[in-house]
Amino acid sequence: MIEQQLGFSLESFLRGILGIATVLGVAYLMSYDRKRVDWKLVGGGLFMQLVFALAVLYVPVVGTVLEWMGKAFIKLMDFTQSGVAFLLGPLVTKSEGFIFLLNSLPVVIFFSAL
Description:
By secondary structure, the chain is mainly α. It has helices at about 10-30, 40-60, 60-90, 100-114.
C-alpha cells in the first residue's frame, strides 16, 4: 500500500520545479522564433499561477467558490446527458457500453453554444 503524505516536502517542491522547467524547456526548444520569447510575460504567468494555487490551498472562500462552480458544471453536464438520452434513447444507455462520440460530442456542442 502506498503511504499518502500530507503537507509540504522538499522532494515535492523540487519535483514541481523540475516539471515547470521541463515544460518551459520543451516549449523553448520547440519554439520557431526563440528570440521573441517574452520572458517577462512567462514569469508573470507563472507568478499568477502560483498566486492562484496558494489562494486555492489557503483561502477557504476561494476553495468554496471553486467547489460551487464545479457542482454547477456537473449539474449542467447532467442536463446534457438527459437531453442526449431523450434524443438518442437506447444508443446511449449504460448497457450498450460507453460510446465516446454519442456521450462526449453533445456536451461539447452544448458548452460551445452556451
